[in-house]
Write a structure and sequence with these properties.
Trna Endonuclease, Chain: A, domain 1, 2 domains, Four Helix Bundle (Hemerythrin (Met), subunit A), REase AHJR-like domain-containing protein, four-stranded mixed sheet, alpha+beta
Length: 242
């Protein structure tokens, strides 16, 4: 089964809530009159049934528990679009654990292959950002698997959500990088499954490339590689994720 049992699910939510508390967020009740300050309506809560609501000032975080197989669902795509209509809302997904799967035997891209593909990616970002978006995720996953192999981090399977979560726990991904990737995952799954998704902007692709380049510099000892694939606006700040 994809879904955690209720006690495990509740434990995951409790741990997540504590994590948010450390960041200054406070849980809120869906029954509170929040329409004036946060724009939250009873109809939204009834329709989408968020599993956790948290606020920090005028910012609202909506947590939805889902499984990997449901990330690309039309219902979740609709929820994502609804959240993006509110500048002070953010959707965070809690992906439930899946049964361990044996590591695939197919070889992953190695160092030289990844660097060549990063250079191939560069002209695609402005010309065709959607294909570049999917390509950048493939390169990110290949890079993370390469680091896992180098650092002797055991991976049970190659699911992307699982991969970035493990790399956060292992100290490979920083919390800000993980959070941006986590927030972008729904768009990645929606586009890869042919579902409607908000437009992919070049800066969004560059954010993924920025994470890849930083990983290469920090873990793979290839400062030369970083220069070879430097984006035209690599000095830009990381874009905020809706």
């Amino acid at each position: 089964m994809d879904y955690l049992s209720n006690p495990e699910r509740d434990r995951e939510l409790l741990d997540l809530e504590q994590d948010y508390r450390h960041q200054g967020y406070e849980p809120v009740s869906a029954s509170e009159p929040l329409q004036d300050t946060l724009g939250l309506t009873r109809e939204f809560v009834t329709t989408y049934a968020p599993d956790l609501l948290l606020r920090r000032g005028a910012e609202l975080i909506i947590v939805k528990v889902t499984s990997h197989k449901d990330v690309g669902s039309p219902q979740l795509a609709q929820l994502t679009q609804e959240v993006e209509q509110h500048h002070n809302w953010r959707l965070d997904l809690l992906l439930l654990a899946e049964p361990p799967q044996p590591q695939e035997r197919e070889p992953s891209w190695q160092k030289d292959e990844i660097l060549v593909r990063l250079q191939t990616l560069k002209p695609l970002i402005e010309q065709t950002p959607e294909p570049a978006w999917l390509y950048s995720w493939a390169l990110l996953e290949a890079t993370l698997r390469l680091i896992a192999e180098q650092e002797e981090i055991r991976l049970k399977h190659r699911d992307c959500a699982y991969l970035i979560k493990v790399m956060l726990f292992e100290g490979v991904l920083s919390r800000p990088d993980y959070q941006d990737l986590h927030n972008l995952l729904p768009r990645r799954h929606q586009l890869s499954h042919g579902l409607n998704t908000p437009s992919i902007e070049p800066d969004t692709v560059r954010r993924i490339v920025e994470v890849i380049e930083n990983l290469w510099v920090e873990f793979l000892g290839n400062s030369e590689g970083h220069g070879a694939v430097e984006m035209a606006n690599s000095s830009d700040e990381a874009i905020p994720i809706a």
